[in-house]
Amino acid sequence: MDHLVTATAAEGTIRVRAAITTALVAEARDRHDCSPTASAALGRLMTAAALMGGGLKGERRIALQVAGNGPLRNVVAEAFEHDGGIGVRGYALPPDVDLPLALNGKFDVGGAVGRGVLQVTRTLENGMPYTGIVELVSGEIGDDIAGYFATSEQTPSVVALGVLASPKGILAAGGIIAELMPGTGEHAIATLERAAAALPPVTALVRSGADARGLVDAVAREMAPKTLRELPVHFACRCSREKVEIAVRGLGVTTLDEMVREKRSQTVICDYCRQVYELTPREVAALVSS
Ligand SMILES: [Zn+2]
User: pTM for this structure?
Assistant: First the structure.
């Protein structure tokens, strides 16, 4: 089962979060019918959202958006507290973009995304959003998240995100983010850099049976890691019939009246989870009179 571990290492100077997200990415791939390249991009971003949203409570959320000039124009992932764990939703547009493998044998996510920006939006408990935008480093997602930590939060970090996809499905997915805590010294930075250089690919670790603690160990074994918390991770959406009705009501009385006269029903499909909501002409009429 997918899960996320939060740990500290090097006497509390480094925070490590690691997650297994194979089922999460598989569900996103199936819901959106993604190509292997789009699955890799979406899966990496959803894994990053889970890792960055690992401590969220209540109405707090984190949303990541990668917008580039490549064929994969837009990748979005959002994480929030859900059902005693971390809920993650997301989509990639268009979902059928597929490129030949890159020279290193990996998915050419950077080629699919192109040049552009990463936008990180943190929503507070009171609903206030705070947004940071950085230029993409490579479009490979992992580098871009590390670039965000360096630029926007002045935090040196190690980010490793991996999705192993075949045309038939997702074979393995997971990720690690290790961040230096504020005010730590040169020694901790050097230790983290050494660990990053020796880190095997995340998907290789997941395929060999590592759980999230195993991923933490892979980066922090030499730094006496201590697990603080373990949470389940799963696909979840924040859409609902009530929210759809509010959106439809937003079309305005004139449009709704017209729909009622022509006895048209309204179909709304959620961008994030592809859930289909049908409103019959009678239900549309009820919206008008309310
Ligand atoms: Zn939805």
Answer: 0.95
